[in-house]
Amino acid sequence: MNIGNASDKSGLPAKTIRYYEDIGLLKPDRADNGYRDYSMSDVHKLRFLQRSRGLGFSVEECRQLLALYEDKSRASADVKSIAKSKLQEIERKIIELRELQHTLKHLVAHCHGDQRPDCPILESISGTAGSS
Amino acid sequence: MNIGNASDKSGLPAKTIRYYEDIGLLKPDRADNGYRDYSMSDVHKLRFLQRSRGLGFSVEECRQLLALYEDKSRASADVKSIAKSKLQEIERKIIELRELQHTLKHLVAHCHGDQRPDCPILESISGTAGSS
DNA sequence: GGTAATCTTTCCAGTAACTGGAAGGTCAAG
DNA sequence: CTTGACCTTCCAGTTACTGGAAAGATTACC
Predict the structure, then answer these.
(1) Does one domain contain both A61 and A83?
(2) Using one digit for the tens of pLDDT, what is the confidence trace for B84-125?
(3) Inter-axis angle of helices A76-110 and B40-54, to 10 degrees?
């Protein structure tokens, strides 16, 4: 499939997909006319990248995650140790998102925007009373 | 407190804190010697920024979140509608993180790195069999 | 078959969000 | 009163895109 189609299915702009190719993240086939030709597997990987980038992983981290995703020949211990450290990071991100969620819900529920100078939320936000 | 201290407490590099000041996200007091002087409230906000950035929100989105955080005078409906749309985004991110977590756990549990050409994970990854 | 619209290609420049480093001022310790 | 660890501003470089030009390919219509 052409890049426009892959873009629609992955949620990534065509520009970004070409950029990911430039930096060696994903190399699609080429059709006889020179057009890039994406397989469904490529599209899955693009969607995977779209998600991980949106969740705050850097491109280099995404490269690692993609390597895990694509793993076909690396040593088990190696793969597992990277996966485990990524899992810890994911766990942390989920917790932080829950705290942010809690804070915003609290705001929606309790702050009425009626010119009050101090909001009780300020106490609980930014992990001051929720983590570490 | 000085910027180095604020940096330690917020987890943001001093460089980044100065950059956030440049773009108008957070304006600390200045001591008589010209040094930036951060209050605990400033540090909370920096930590808040550190987290939201790490969770994949853009600086402009963080500006909105910070405005919610700081809200003291805006109309309730306005604040609530922004907060609600951010809550949806957070909900989505949590779901995506859970799926990523599930995928990686599956990888750690079932892929042994023993040269196998196709991993069963490929089916379930990237939301193909888990969402939408 | 012609041609206009809509792809696609590469390349180069611009933006967003930092990041590093130079040149110099400030401060606490010995 | 100097040494070292801070801090300041400024300017240049990096990462991760993003927009736009110029040109080739494909499809859609007459």
Answers:
(1) no
(2) 888 999 999 999 999 989 888 887 776 654 444 444 444 444
(3) 130
Same domain, A113 and A48: no
Q: Residues at the strand D interface (CB under 7 A)?
A: A 13, 15-16, 19, 23, 31-35, 53, 58-60; B 2-5, 14, 18, 34-36
Residue B37, classed as helix, strand or coil, is strand
- Contact (Cβ atoms closer than 8 angstroms) between residue A68 and residue B104: yes
Number of domains composing chain B: 2
> Hey, which residues does A29 pair with through a beta bridge?
A37
Domain boundary among B70, B95, B112: B70
Same domain, B102 and B131: yes
A51 contacts B56? CB cut-off 8 A: no
Does A117 or A98 have the greater pLDDT score? A98
* pLDDT tens digits, one per residue of B52-68: 999 999 999 999 888 88
Whether residues B25 and B62 fall in one domain: yes
**Would you state the structure tokens that stand for residue B28, as one six-digit string?**
């600390």
Q: Domain containing A89: what range?
A: 78-132
Tell me the chain A residues in contact with residue B125 when contact means C-beta distances shorter than 8 Å: 44, 48, 69
